Amino acid sequence: MISDATKARFAKEVAKYPAEQAQSAVMACLSIVQQELGYVSSESEKVVADFLGMAPMAVHEVTSFYNMYNQKPVGKFKLNVCTNLPCQLRDGQKALHHLEHKLGIHMGETTSDGLFTLQQSECLGACADSPVLLVNDRKMCSFMSNDKLDQLVDGIRAAEGKA
Ligand code: FES
Protein backbone atom coordinates (compact mmCIF):
# COMPACT_ATOMS: atom_id res chain seq x y z
CA MET A 1 0.00 0.00 0.00
CA ILE A 2 1.57 3.26 -1.13
CA SER A 3 0.61 6.13 1.17
CA ASP A 4 0.09 9.77 0.31
CA ALA A 5 3.26 10.52 2.27
CA THR A 6 5.16 8.14 0.01
CA LYS A 7 3.70 9.80 -3.06
CA ALA A 8 4.85 13.15 -1.66
CA ARG A 9 8.37 11.69 -1.56
CA PHE A 10 7.94 10.58 -5.21
CA ALA A 11 6.95 14.13 -6.12
CA LYS A 12 10.15 15.52 -4.59
CA GLU A 13 12.19 13.20 -6.80
CA VAL A 14 10.18 14.04 -9.91
CA ALA A 15 10.72 17.75 -9.23
CA LYS A 16 14.47 17.25 -9.78
CA TYR A 17 13.88 16.66 -13.51
CA PRO A 18 12.29 18.64 -16.37
CA ALA A 19 8.49 18.27 -16.37
CA GLU A 20 8.41 16.03 -19.45
CA GLN A 21 11.02 13.66 -17.98
CA ALA A 22 9.25 12.42 -14.88
CA GLN A 23 10.28 8.84 -15.66
CA SER A 24 13.89 9.79 -14.87
CA ALA A 25 12.83 9.48 -11.23
CA VAL A 26 11.84 5.83 -11.56
CA MET A 27 14.86 4.37 -9.74
CA ALA A 28 14.53 6.86 -6.89
CA CYS A 29 10.81 6.11 -6.54
CA LEU A 30 11.44 2.36 -6.49
CA SER A 31 14.11 2.90 -3.80
CA ILE A 32 11.58 4.85 -1.71
CA VAL A 33 9.08 2.00 -2.05
CA GLN A 34 11.72 -0.48 -0.91
CA GLN A 35 12.79 1.70 2.03
CA GLU A 36 9.19 1.92 3.23
CA LEU A 37 7.82 -1.53 2.39
CA GLY A 38 10.95 -3.70 2.24
CA TYR A 39 10.33 -4.83 -1.34
CA VAL A 40 8.76 -3.75 -4.61
CA SER A 41 5.61 -5.71 -5.44
CA SER A 42 3.93 -5.66 -8.84
CA GLU A 43 1.17 -3.54 -7.23
CA SER A 44 3.79 -1.01 -6.13
CA GLU A 45 5.26 -1.02 -9.63
CA LYS A 46 1.83 -0.12 -11.00
CA VAL A 47 1.51 2.80 -8.57
CA VAL A 48 4.95 4.08 -9.56
CA ALA A 49 4.08 3.62 -13.25
CA ASP A 50 0.85 5.60 -12.84
CA PHE A 51 2.63 8.32 -10.91
CA LEU A 52 5.36 8.71 -13.55
CA GLY A 53 3.17 8.16 -16.62
CA MET A 54 5.02 5.00 -17.61
CA ALA A 55 3.90 1.54 -18.69
CA PRO A 56 3.98 -0.90 -15.73
CA MET A 57 6.22 -3.22 -17.80
CA ALA A 58 8.79 -0.43 -18.22
CA VAL A 59 8.91 -0.05 -14.43
CA HIS A 60 9.18 -3.81 -14.00
CA GLU A 61 12.12 -3.87 -16.41
CA VAL A 62 13.97 -1.56 -14.01
CA THR A 63 13.01 -3.52 -10.89
CA SER A 64 14.05 -6.81 -12.42
CA PHE A 65 17.29 -5.52 -13.98
CA TYR A 66 18.89 -4.26 -10.75
CA ASN A 67 19.19 -6.93 -8.11
CA MET A 68 19.28 -4.34 -5.32
CA TYR A 69 15.50 -4.11 -5.77
CA ASN A 70 13.79 -6.87 -3.83
CA GLN A 71 10.89 -8.33 -5.77
CA LYS A 72 9.61 -10.22 -2.74
CA PRO A 73 10.04 -9.89 1.04
CA VAL A 74 13.57 -10.62 2.26
CA GLY A 75 15.21 -11.37 5.59
CA LYS A 76 16.62 -8.71 7.87
CA PHE A 77 20.09 -9.37 6.42
CA LYS A 78 20.34 -9.91 2.68
CA LEU A 79 23.62 -11.53 1.64
CA ASN A 80 24.52 -11.16 -2.03
CA VAL A 81 27.48 -13.32 -3.03
CA CYS A 82 29.18 -12.48 -6.30
CA THR A 83 29.30 -15.50 -8.60
CA ASN A 84 30.25 -13.69 -11.78
CA LEU A 85 33.07 -15.25 -13.77
CA PRO A 86 36.14 -13.58 -12.19
CA CYS A 87 34.80 -14.47 -8.74
CA GLN A 88 33.89 -17.99 -9.87
CA LEU A 89 37.56 -18.44 -10.66
CA ARG A 90 38.41 -17.36 -7.12
CA ASP A 91 35.98 -19.36 -4.96
CA GLY A 92 32.86 -17.19 -5.30
CA GLN A 93 30.70 -20.26 -5.94
CA LYS A 94 32.36 -22.07 -3.06
CA ALA A 95 31.49 -19.18 -0.74
CA LEU A 96 27.85 -19.32 -1.88
CA HIS A 97 27.71 -23.09 -1.25
CA HIS A 98 29.32 -22.64 2.17
CA LEU A 99 26.65 -20.11 3.13
CA GLU A 100 23.89 -22.40 1.83
CA HIS A 101 25.21 -25.12 4.12
CA LYS A 102 25.79 -22.76 7.06
CA LEU A 103 22.33 -21.19 6.82
CA GLY A 104 20.49 -24.37 5.84
CA ILE A 105 18.84 -22.74 2.82
CA HIS A 106 19.35 -22.61 -0.92
CA MET A 107 20.29 -19.55 -2.90
CA GLY A 108 17.24 -17.29 -3.25
CA GLU A 109 15.70 -18.46 0.01
CA THR A 110 15.21 -16.87 3.46
CA THR A 111 15.93 -18.59 6.77
CA SER A 112 12.86 -19.62 8.75
CA ASP A 113 13.69 -17.07 11.49
CA GLY A 114 13.59 -14.29 8.88
CA LEU A 115 17.16 -13.27 9.64
CA PHE A 116 18.97 -14.08 6.38
CA THR A 117 18.20 -14.09 2.67
CA LEU A 118 20.90 -15.55 0.45
CA GLN A 119 21.30 -14.45 -3.15
CA GLN A 120 23.91 -14.51 -5.85
CA SER A 121 24.84 -11.33 -7.63
CA GLU A 122 26.57 -10.05 -10.70
CA CYS A 123 29.95 -8.31 -10.49
CA LEU A 124 30.21 -6.07 -7.43
CA GLY A 125 33.23 -4.26 -8.84
CA ALA A 126 35.70 -5.81 -6.41
CA CYS A 127 36.92 -8.84 -8.39
CA ALA A 128 40.43 -8.67 -6.93
CA ASP A 129 38.98 -9.13 -3.43
CA SER A 130 37.07 -12.31 -4.24
CA PRO A 131 35.20 -14.01 -2.73
CA VAL A 132 33.09 -10.94 -2.03
CA LEU A 133 29.58 -10.36 -0.76
CA LEU A 134 27.35 -7.42 -0.05
CA VAL A 135 25.25 -7.17 3.12
CA ASN A 136 21.94 -5.31 2.69
CA ASP A 137 23.13 -3.64 -0.51
CA ARG A 138 25.52 -1.46 1.49
CA LYS A 139 28.33 -3.24 3.33
CA MET A 140 30.98 -4.89 1.15
CA CYS A 141 32.81 -7.88 2.64
CA SER A 142 36.04 -8.93 0.94
CA PHE A 143 38.26 -12.02 0.86
CA MET A 144 35.45 -14.11 2.40
CA SER A 145 37.07 -17.39 3.33
CA ASN A 146 34.86 -20.01 4.97
CA ASP A 147 36.15 -18.87 8.37
CA LYS A 148 35.23 -15.25 7.64
CA LEU A 149 31.80 -16.30 6.37
CA ASP A 150 31.22 -18.21 9.61
CA GLN A 151 32.34 -15.19 11.65
CA LEU A 152 29.98 -12.92 9.73
CA VAL A 153 26.93 -15.16 10.18
CA ASP A 154 27.72 -16.04 13.79
CA GLY A 155 28.37 -12.38 14.62
CA ILE A 156 25.02 -11.29 13.17
CA ARG A 157 23.20 -14.12 14.94
CA ALA A 158 24.83 -13.16 18.24
CA ALA A 159 24.04 -9.48 17.78
CA GLU A 160 20.42 -10.37 17.04
CA GLY A 161 20.15 -12.70 20.03
CA LYS A 162 19.81 -15.75 17.79
CA ALA A 163 23.16 -17.43 18.42
S1 FES B 1 33.22 -10.71 -10.64
FE1 FES B 1 32.85 -10.68 -8.52
S2 FES B 1 33.31 -8.65 -7.91
FE2 FES B 1 33.68 -8.71 -10.03
Automatic annotation (TrEMBL):
<feature type="binding site">
    <location>
        <position position="82"/>
    </location>
    <ligand>
        <name>[2Fe-2S] cluster</name>
    </ligand>
</feature>
<dbReference type="InterPro" id="IPR041921">
    <property type="entry name" value="NuoE_N"/>
</dbReference>
<dbReference type="GO" id="GO:0046872">
    <property type="term" value="F:metal ion binding"/>
</dbReference>
<keyword id="KW-0408">Iron</keyword>
<dbReference type="InterPro" id="IPR036249">
    <property type="entry name" value="Thioredoxin-like_sf"/>
</dbReference>
<protein>
    <submittedName>
        <fullName>NADH-quinone oxidoreductase subunit NuoE</fullName>
    </submittedName>
</protein>
<dbReference type="InterPro" id="IPR002023">
    <property type="entry name" value="NuoE-like"/>
</dbReference>
<comment type="similarity">
    <text>Belongs to the complex I 24 kDa subunit family.</text>
</comment>
<feature type="binding site">
    <location>
        <position position="87"/>
    </location>
    <ligand>
        <name>[2Fe-2S] cluster</name>
    </ligand>
</feature>
<keyword id="KW-0411">Iron-sulfur</keyword>
<dbReference type="GO" id="GO:0051537">
    <property type="term" value="F:2 iron, 2 sulfur cluster binding"/>
</dbReference>
<feature type="binding site">
    <location>
        <position position="127"/>
    </location>
    <ligand>
        <name>[2Fe-2S] cluster</name>
    </ligand>
</feature>
<dbReference type="InterPro" id="IPR042128">
    <property type="entry name" value="NuoE_dom"/>
</dbReference>
<keyword id="KW-0479">Metal-binding</keyword>
<dbReference type="GO" id="GO:0003954">
    <property type="term" value="F:NADH dehydrogenase activity"/>
</dbReference>
<feature type="binding site">
    <location>
        <position position="123"/>
    </location>
    <ligand>
        <name>[2Fe-2S] cluster</name>
    </ligand>
</feature>
<keyword id="KW-0001">2Fe-2S</keyword>
<dbReference type="Pfam" id="PF01257">
    <property type="entry name" value="2Fe-2S_thioredx"/>
</dbReference>
